């Protein structure tokens, strides 16, 4: 709960100050309101600090792989083309789940590459080179 | 009245055009499917298909997206009743009595009754939409920038405070959405705001990227390796779906009451479907002569909430379409889609784009009818589909998200944005901040700003104009009432030690 209010506060400060008058008129008020609400959350949540028992553990492997897959798709998409980007993104994402072995992940990735080529290149004529060099 | 019927006929003409009809079918079937699959909500799917709508015209696009929305409501009920899996929050209530019915061997009947109730409630909702919207249209002509921004303020407040969880957090999230909406080039001065010098942000944040990150990716992040495997051996045949006469008799009144509850909640902007179904269920239990049957497979406990969910779903479209105020985040997304298509949303929508409005109304009816028919053979297939493990599902969905977002602008920057918002969304969810209001704020933000500025120009910077004009004054008063109500309920909650438990 306190973490929540702190993060809200951190967010508000950045927004509250980074405004200019004129076009910044509305954003300035958004920022002000956010500071207020952030403070209010801080005050109210202090009121009933309770049941911190259920700590949600973050699945680091999943997070890393899923976010990594998106970033990989973006980068490889530019420098390598659709086919390698799809393969690597799906493979990495699938590896994010402990239930997947490297083999099933590769199979899934291959299947989706085929689907991607058929649907997006031939079906929808998307402007995305299958392979690109550099 | 006659005018409305003529318009409706025209709408059927639009909706029955082969291409439009095709998109309706795609929409409802897809919606039905994702309604069944746990973890993929209407929100995610609509955002995933948002990019696709860039290539098809406005009318079929909106018909399809809407189809996904109400189609998923049908699907969600299947999951809740047969598997005790509330894949979507509004159906959590349906589980309470639906699953016991399955255990008692009456799962088929529960599904049959649900479908009947849904169809009935949706029809009532559509009928209301046909007759109420033109009335609103007449009022809409009196709406200037002042009124519009006042209504939107109400919509935002309602949307953020009525959602589940703490109202303050909802407001914080709405503000965050407003902030995101202000990213990009300022319309009236051309100055870039919050772009941090990134040229890719000059056009603002993409709606598809935002919603996919917040709902799609964030959801994957939180559920990887956490979803337990579910299997079912239930087989549903056509014959099982016919409820007995006694069951039918017991369902009729709850069906009507549920529809009524849904209609009332649908008319109130910002009330989510979840609260609607809970209220409908609570009402049924309260007036029932034998409340102890609830929770053990009382058919009323299935009918009423499902009817309420469906009538609300349809009626939600009234404020969205006739006033441009989305009742809930899904509506905000649909509105966003219309704006992307260059359709001017707001009070003038019905007059300026009768094909969108009446076509949509007519397509609701066709779509609901299709769902009734389709659901019977499809249930078996859906149930089998549920066996696809999540570990295969999410990498595939991730890929479709990535390529879908890329295709909106042929720009990889948006994919990175999805990653960022996914991360942000997951953190918010971990901290128990609702993410749905972000989208509400994001879509309404630019509209509010524009109208607020115009109102200020018209009144020469006098804020009192909001109180001097009767319509906007009413809305402002309603806003204040909402805030006071929240304070009141907060005080009441904190005075009695632990009433929150009763909610679960």
Automatic annotation (TrEMBL), chain A:
Keywords (A to Z) from UniProt: Membrane, Transmembrane, Transmembrane helix
Protein name: DUF1468 domain-containing protein
InterPro entries for the chain: DUF1468
Coiled-coil segments on the chain, per record: none
Domain of life, source organism: Bacteria
Species name: Bradyrhizobium neotropicale
Segments traversing the membrane: 26-44, 64-93, 105-124
Pfam families: TctB (PF07331)
Annotated ranges, domain DUF1468: 10-128
UniProtKB/TrEMBL annotation, chain B:
InterPro entries to which the protein is assigned, alphabetical: DUF112_TM (IPR002823)
Domain DUF112 span(s) in chain numbering: 21-440
Keyword Iron-sulfur: no
Domain of life according to the entry: Bacteria
Spans traversing the lipid bilayer: 20-40, 52-83, 109-132, 139-158, 170-189, 201-222, 263-283, 356-383, 390-409, 415-445, 466-488
Alphabetical keyword list: Membrane, Transmembrane, Transmembrane helix
Keyword Transmembrane assigned: yes
Pfam families, per the entry: TctA
PANTHER family reported in the protein's UniProt record: TRICARBOXYLIC TRANSPORT PROTEIN
Name the record gives this protein: DUF112 domain-containing protein
Source organism (scientific name): Bradyrhizobium neotropicale
């Amino acid at each position: 709960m306190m973490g929540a209010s702190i993060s809200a506060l951190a967010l508000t400060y950045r927004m509250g100050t980074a405004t200019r008058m004129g076009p910044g008129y509305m954003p300035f008020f958004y920022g002000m309101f956010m500071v207020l609400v952030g403070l209010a959350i801080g005050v109210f949540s202090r009121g009933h600090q309770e049941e911190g028992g259920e700590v949600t553990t973050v699945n680091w492997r999943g997070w890393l792989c899923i976010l990594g897959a998106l970033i990989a798709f973006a980068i490889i998409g530019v420098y390598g083309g659709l086919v390698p980007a799809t393969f690597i993104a799906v493979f990495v994402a699938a590896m994010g789940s402990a239930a997947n072995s490297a083999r099933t992940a590769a199979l899934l990735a291959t299947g989706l590459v085929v689907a991607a080529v058929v649907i997006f290149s031939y079906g929808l004529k998307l402007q995305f080179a299958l392979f690109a060099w550099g | 009245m006659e005018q409305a019927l003529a318009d409706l006929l025209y709408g059927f003409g639009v909706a029955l055009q082969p291409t439009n009809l095709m998109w309706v079918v795609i929409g409802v079937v897809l919606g039905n499917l994702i309604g069944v699959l746990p973890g993929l909500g209407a929100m995610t799917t609509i955002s995933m298909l948002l990019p696709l709508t860039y290539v098809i015209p406005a009318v079929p696009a909106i018909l399809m997206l809407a189809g996904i929305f109400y189609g998923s409501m049908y699907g969600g009920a299947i999951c809740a009743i047969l598997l005790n899996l509330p894949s979507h929050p509004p159906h959590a209530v349906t589980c309470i009595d639906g699953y016991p019915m399955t255990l008692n061997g009456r799962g088929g009947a529960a599904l049959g009754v649900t479908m009947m109730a849904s169809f009935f409630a949706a029809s009532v909702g559509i009928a209301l939409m046909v007759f109420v919207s033109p009335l609103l249209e007449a009022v809409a002509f009196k709406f200037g920038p002042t009124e519009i921004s006042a209504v939107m303020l109400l919509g935002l407040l309602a949307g953020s405070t009525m959602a589940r969880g703490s109202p303050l957090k909802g407001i914080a999230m709405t503000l965050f959405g407003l902030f995101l909406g202000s990213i990009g080039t300022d319309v009236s001065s051309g100055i870039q705001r919050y772009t941090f010098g990134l040229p890719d942000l000059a056009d603002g944040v993409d709606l598809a990227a935002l919603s996919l990150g917040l709902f799609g990716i964030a959801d994957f992040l939180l559920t990887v390796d956490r979803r337990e495997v579910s299997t079912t051996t239930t087989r549903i045949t056509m014959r099982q779906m016919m409820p007995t006469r006694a069951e039918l008799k017991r369902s009729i009144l709850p069906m009507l009451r549920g529809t009524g509850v849904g209609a009332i909640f649908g008319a109130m902007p910002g009330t989510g479907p979840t609260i609607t179904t809970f209220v409908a269920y609570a009402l049924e239990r309260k007036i029932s002569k034998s409340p102890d049957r609830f929770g053990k497979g009382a058919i009323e406990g299935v009918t009423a909430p499902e009817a309420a969910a469906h009538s609300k779903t349809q009626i939600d479209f009234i404020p969205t379409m006739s006033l441009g105020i989305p009742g809930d985040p899904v509506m905000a997304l649909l509105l966003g889609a219309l704006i992307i298509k260059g359709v001017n949303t707001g009070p003038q929508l019905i007059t300026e784009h009768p094909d969108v409005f009446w076509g949509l109304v007519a397509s609701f009816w066709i779509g609901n009818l299709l769902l009734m028919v389709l659901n019977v053979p499809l249930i078996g297939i859906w149930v089998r589909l549920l066996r696809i493990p999540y570990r295969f599902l999410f990498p595939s969905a991730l890929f479709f998200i990535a390529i879908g977002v890329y295709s909106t602008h042929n720009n990889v920057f948006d994919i990175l944005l999805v990653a960022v918002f996914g991360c942000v969304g997951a953190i918010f969810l971990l901290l128990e901040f609702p993410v749905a209001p972000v989208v509400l704020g994001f879509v309404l933000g630019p509209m509010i700003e524009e109208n607020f500025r115009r109102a200020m120009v018209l009144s020469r910077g006098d804020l009192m104009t909001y109180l001097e004009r009767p319509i906007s004054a009413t809305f402002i008063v309603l806003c204040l009432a909402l805030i006071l109500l929240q304070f009141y309920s907060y005080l009441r909650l904190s005075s009695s030690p632990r009433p929150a438990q009763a909610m679960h």
